[in-house]
Automatic annotation (TrEMBL):
The gene is pyrF. GO terms for biological process: 'de novo' pyrimidine nucleobase biosynthetic process; 'de novo' UMP biosynthetic process. Pathway: Pyrimidine metabolism; UMP biosynthesis via de novo pathway; UMP from orotate: step 2/2. It comes from the Bacteria. The active site is at K98. The keyword Cell wall biogenesis/degradation does not apply. GO terms for molecular function: orotidine-5'-phosphate decarboxylase activity. This is Orotidine 5'-phosphate decarboxylase. It comes from Streptantibioticus silvisoli. Residues 19-268 form the Orotidine 5'-phosphate decarboxylase domain. It catalyses: orotidine 5'-phosphate + H(+) = UMP + CO2.
Amino acid sequence: MTLAPFGTRLRRAMDTRGPLCVGIDPHAALLADWGLPDDARGLERFALTVVEALADRVAVLKPQSAFFERFGSRGVAVLERAVAEARQAGALVLMDAKRGDIGSTMAAYAATYLDPGSPLFCDAVTVSPYLGYGSLRPAVQAARASGTGLFVLALTSNPEGAQVQRAVTAGGPTVAGAVLQALRAENAGERPLGSFGAVVGATLGGTVAGAGVDLDTGGPLLAPGIGAQGATPADLPAVFGDALRNVLPTVSRDVLRHGPDLAALRSAAQQVAVEIHAVTAA
């Protein structure tokens, strides 16, 4: 079956289920809070509980690959199952892997997450452009071929990111600005939403406006930082301005801490979704 472009599928999911991405981040501390062992069995219970609770109602689920990889092959097997079951239940799956390399290695990363024949096939993956945006070309090509998408790190929510992202390139714009320009070119002419998104932190407040960047790339904007990192849905308009409609806020701990009770997880996600809708629909 040929997939519609990721941007088309994401726009539909955001419009019908609401613009919310929930992370699946099985920190050791969260496993403990859920009364689960810090091993592959606890990981499996955690991940599949989140999928059961949320995959039929939120637009996107975002597993953080590192928390599965730390358990080796058993952890990756859990990740494969979680991805498959989440997609089967109707959620789009964004793999938070932040891969970045060159040549055949980047192509191999792309095949891992964006090839329909892969056991880890997802709807999109996060990637890092800091070996040069051109190093992402194999992933861009794979995404176009399979109807999947990318979210490229641009203005991230961690304070250390500014050292690189706000540096000025030889051509004039900041590094983040150059990444956003490249994404705008990737998404040119795509409707209703391009498939190549940027990661822009919700914690950045009005500093984005002062950074001389245009966030309207024609693609989605993944917005981490709501909840444990200090941002709230009310902060989104100041960060994203006219691009607000294309923002996909992502929340992890503020929802996950309500587990393992299914009803509590669903209620927490619904509350965040209501708060986001109140801001984005205004």
